[in-house]
Each structure stands twice: as structure tokens, then as C-alpha cells.
């Protein structure tokens, strides 16, 4: 019975969305956003795995189905690399500013492939709960959690899938000239978690998402120097990144402002699992081994991204991971 319901659910997601269903879903998103925005400040903080709500996810699916099919015209492949059950660590390259369109579209694809009841979580930047609390609380109900190792371990202990973007804000706002580059900025924590919990790493990559806005530069280092000389941060908030970008709705965006992504065609891909030679606590404490595993992930993801870029643009790029 459960399998029949799940099959019907997945089939419905693949059907063209009607105008009525899309509008209804969009209105539902607005309603859920305002409910989340005005909810108790101590609710949906990202510190509980139980805040994820499949019924809320169901309400969002028709609208994001329209975004998927008609706005970004997504092409996707490689989902056979994800096991049908069990825990897995999904590692992605982050693109497209705060809108992060490839993240949203791959999340939609996850629910299309596996339904809304299979446990899946994604780590989200803690500052989003500070500056965009309504959005953060709504995202929490979809599966966003705080980026703390204990939260990842707890989720994996429930046999959940966990999506991590190791590059974080530095990756999502990297300059446009680095759009085809894996940019994890040396963050190796995800490797230690994979080794500790003995889970495979499955990479997520995409093409097109980092062209939905054009990041010209990140002037955070210069502003940080001014801050050290006495200049206060706006609203007392250290953003950690301060891009200048071309995009909607600002035309020229200054700072990590929310953006409306341009309707660029996206191609997302799930890559073959990366399995390491050894796992366990001792492996996770071996700095040289962790660094070697990190380089392996970066190199394999870069090779996969080079192939995807070549398919889409007709030319490959040989770039190494920072």
C-alpha cells in the first residue's frame, strides 16, 4: 500500500503543472512564509530534526515544479547513483547567490525521485536565521538544519540523507570567472563526518546556476580591514562575504542581498559515489589522510564538472580545488 501511494506521489510530480495548481501553491508558499515569519522566535531554529514537515513540502511542490520545468528548464541526470534507502552524504558545489537555484531545483528533484517521506536534510548558513528569519523557519520545515557536526551525526543516525555545501557563502558568491571551479575553500569537516559515520560521499554539480547572477568581485577583505580600523558593520552584522554583482532586482547588487535569478537553463548532475580506502574514528583523526580524502573529492568533482561544462559549452576547463 505504501509503495502504491509513493509511486502515485512520484508520478504526480512528473505531470505538467496546471495554472490553478501553480497559483494555489504560490499562494500557499506566501501563507506558510508569513506563518513562519510570525511564529515564535524559539521555533524552527534548525536545531531539531523533527521540524521537517512532509505536508509543507507537498504544498510547495506544484510551484517549484513550474519553476523547474518552465523557468529554469532543468535537465538532470545521475540519480541512479543514490541508493534507494539508507544514509548518505550529498556534497554540492554552491551557486547563484542567496537564491541558490541549483540547490532548490536539486531539492525538488530529490522529492520527485524519492518522495517527501524519505528523510533528507540540508545544512544552511546560520546567518540566514538572523537576517531572514521567515525564510529560515520555512526552510527548516523543508529540512534545513544548523551546520553543526552533531546535527549531521544525528541525522545520519536516523539513516537520513544530508546535503552539505562545504564552500558556503564564499562558494555561492564566488566571482563569475570561477563559476566552473570547485571552490570549497579548504573546508574539510565533511570529510571527517563521512569517515566517522562510514558513509559514501555522492557529489552534486551543476551548470548554468552561477550565471543566474554575475558576481564581479568580493570586497569583504577590504571592508574587513576598514572594520578593524573602526568602521562598524551595517546593523552590527558581519556578513562574512560582500559581493558586487549584476542581477535582478537590483541591476547592480552591493553586498549579500537576496536576488531573483535570471531564467538560465540549468543542467544538474548526481555523480558516482566516492568511497575512501578506510573509515572510522582513527581515520577521521589522521590529518594527512583527511587532507588526502579532501583532495580526492575536489579532484573527482572538478573532473565531473569539467565534463559537464564540456557537454554544455563544448570546451573543458582544467581547474583545481582550493
Task: Describe what is shown at a glance.
The chain has 322 residues and is of the alpha/beta class.
Overview of this protein structure:
This protein has 322 residues and is an alpha/beta fold. The protein has one domain (2-313): Glycerol-3-phosphate (1)-acyltransferase. The protein is 44% helix and 13% strand. It contains twelve helices and ten strands. The chain has helices at residues 2-14, 19-37, 54-71, 101-114, 127-131, 133-142, 149-157, 168-172, 189-197, 220-228, 281-284, 287-313; strands at residues 75-77, 88-92, 120-123, 144-145, 161-164, 201-207, 214-218, 243-247, 251-254, 267-270. The strands form two sheets. It has a seven-stranded mixed β-sheet with strand order 1-10-6-2-5-3-4, with helices on both faces. Strand 8 and strand 9 (251-254) form a beta hairpin. Helix 2 packs across helix 3 (54-71), helix 2 crosses helix 6 (133-142) and helix 3 crosses helix 4 (101-114). The longest helix is centred in the C-terminal third of the chain and has 27 residues, at 287-313. It is globular. The termini are far apart. Mean pLDDT is 92; it is low at 1-11 and 315-320.
